[in-house]
Amino acid sequence: MARRSEIAGLLRHGRKWEGGPFVIFFADNNLRYDRFAVLVSKKNGGAVRRNHLKRIYRELFRTNPTGGFPRHDTVLLPKAGINISYAKAGEGFAQWIQFAKKQRAQRSG
């Protein structure tokens, strides 16, 4: 997701999930692939810290391509002021995956 208007629309009209060290907004898209964005506010620290958080979450999404909903737009917002490691972020991401699996099961069944 590259356009500011797409991200703003998702934040305004998308579904919201809070868990662990972040908040996720997600919605269906009409594409054949997922789109993912990480928004890190200045409340999380300086540029180096913000970029580190982005790298952590992008890597988690990359290594778990089926981790969310298929054909969805997803925006992840790390909570401010939380000092997090890759392992802790992975635990929060695992909670998100469990939520997504439950939601997919309810839709299909």
Which structural traits does this protein have?
single chain, 109 residues, alpha+beta, Ribosomal Protein S5, domain 2, 3 helices, 4 strands
Structure description:
- With 109 residues, the chain is α+β, with helices and mostly antiparallel strands.
- The protein has one domain: Ribosomal Protein S5, domain 2.
- It is built from three helices and four strands.
- It has a four-stranded mixed β-sheet, with helices on both faces.
- Helix 2 (47-63) crosses helix 3 (86-108).
- The longest helix is centred in the last third of the chain and has 23 residues, at 86-108.
- The chain is globular and about 45 Å long.
Largest sheet: 4 strands, mixed
Strand count: 4
Spatial arrangement of strands, main beta sheet: 1-2-4-3
Number of helices: 3
- Please state the average pLDDT score: 85
Tell me the number of structural domains: 1
- What is the rounded Rg? 14 Å
- What level of helicity do the residues show? 40-55%
Q: Determine the N-to-C terminus distance.
A: 30 Å
- Inertia-based shape: globular
Q: Supply the helix-strand structural class.
A: alpha+beta
Instruction: Label the CATH architecture.
Output: 2-Layer Sandwich
Note poorly predicted spans.
Answer: none
The CATH C-level class name:
Alpha Beta
Strand share of the residues?
15-25%
